[in-house]
Amino acid sequence: MSELRIPQELLPADGRFGSGPAKVRPEALETLARSRVLGTSHRKAPVKDLVGHIRSQLTALYGLPDDWQVVLGNGGSTAFWDLACVSLVRRRSSHGVYGEFTHKFASAVSRTPWLDKPAVREVAYGSGCLPDIDPDADVYAWAHNETSTGVAMPVCPLDGADRESLVLIDATSAAGGLAADVRNADVYYFAPQKNFSSDGGLWIALCSPAALQRADELTSAPDGRWVPDTLNLSLAAQNAAKNQTLNTPAIATLVLLAAQLDWIMDNGGLGFAAARTRESSRRLYEWVEHNELARPYVTDPALRSPVVGTVVMDERVDAPRLCRILRENGIVDVEPYRKLGTDQIRVGMFTSVDPDDVSRLTACIDWVLGEIV
Ligand SMILES: *Cc1c(COP(=O)(O)O)cnc(C)c1O
């Protein structure tokens, strides 16, 4: 039984504001229910055509050059970090760390026995940074969108980096929701449970020729490192070229991903998606600006993410109670990232979220604040 009942007319049409897994569009679920490919072989034409369609839609969405490849495999973005330690980092990487996810990749590298300790530039959470230029770095890594803190960083060229080095961008929560010129990177990788409104479990990597060449070099060295098949980017690329994955993928995840790609492309592509998330976040931050009980966690407006908004509540507000009341009224997952302060709320505004629902969310929060403060 709810502590407080928010008036029906204030409630959003869809109360899912999580930062991943995030809102799945009901229309996509209908496509899934009608799909005839579930329960059929991933080595036969219907599933391979689906994978091929996803690869060509991603190529179109990002305007990828002909010599880039869309590669995919099982295990999500976390598995991709391990794969990068095997298949992409030759000896040393340099990281920009400004939240839990950027930290996790740096940590994965630092625990890899055959790699040097990585260079890590870390700033206070709520801010952002690019990696330091390092003469020994053969990989540079940062995140397009740091989901734990709601900081977005540009996918930009790195002045002074060795031309041989690779740039790996964690785009898990950015891809499909923020515009990017991915040609400034070598690998733009993500998982489909955020802007792509699918389920977790897959990693997808847009790979430059230099990245694929690095993977070939590292995974085929005769006296080189141990390369498990699941962490072998060259093997994944060979499979992807045949519209396959190394081992069985979750086919429902592929169907939902394809449905979301079709929806985004039919509405105008990345420009549509980016405008929608920009509008959602504009509404959230405008509300924050006019609310004396709330302030932005990300103080520099230029760093504020359009897809994940983080808001610090005034000390007069019991933020966990606010989240609990919202949850009891069907508005879910606005709790802050687990290791961040409990005085926050975090609002996922991925492409599927209707900007009008963000406005309704803020109206609901105002209503609850009126009751509990
Ligand atoms: C969600 C997220 C991840 C983790 O993705 P998994 O698929 O759960 O491994 C990594 N990086 C960022 C930026 C994320 O938002």
TL;DR?
It contains ten helices and twelve strands.
Describe this structure in words.
- The protein is an alpha/beta fold and 373 residues long.
- The chain has two domains: 120 residues, Aspartate Aminotransferase, domain 1; 240 residues, Aspartate Aminotransferase, domain 2 (3-Layer(aba) Sandwich), CATH 3.40.640.10.
- It contains ten helices and twelve strands.
- Strand 5 and strand 6 form a beta hairpin.
- Helix 1 crosses helix 7 and helix 8 packs parallel to helix 10.
- The radius of gyration is 21 Å and the shape is globular.
- The two termini are 21 Å apart.
In percent, how much strand structure appears in the residues?
5-15%
**Strand sequence of the main sheet, in spatial order?**
1-9-8-7-4-2-3
The strand count comes to 12
Count of DSSP-assigned helices: 10
- Within CATH, the superfamily of the largest domain carries the name Type I PLP-dependent aspartate aminotransferase-like (Major domain)
Residue-averaged pLDDT: 97
Any idea of the CATH class of the largest domain? Answer: Alpha Beta
Order of helices and strands: HHEHEHEEEEEEEHHHHEEHEH
Give the radius of gyration.
Answer: 21 Å
The stretches of 5 or more residues where confidence is low (pLDDT under 50) are none
- Which fold name corresponds to the CATH topology of the largest domain? Aspartate Aminotransferase, domain 2
Could you give the distance between the termini? Answer: 21 Å
Number of domains: 2
Described by strand count, sense and barrel closure, the largest sheet is:
7 strands, mixed
Which molecules are bound besides the chains? Answer: pyridoxal-5'-phosphate
Strand-pairing-aware structural class: alpha/beta
Organism: Propionibacterium cyclohexanicum
Protein name: phosphoserine transaminase
Family: Belongs to the class-V pyridoxal-phosphate-dependent aminotransferase family. SerC subfamily.
Pathway: Amino-acid biosynthesis; L-serine biosynthesis; L-serine from 3-phospho-D-glycerate: step 2/3
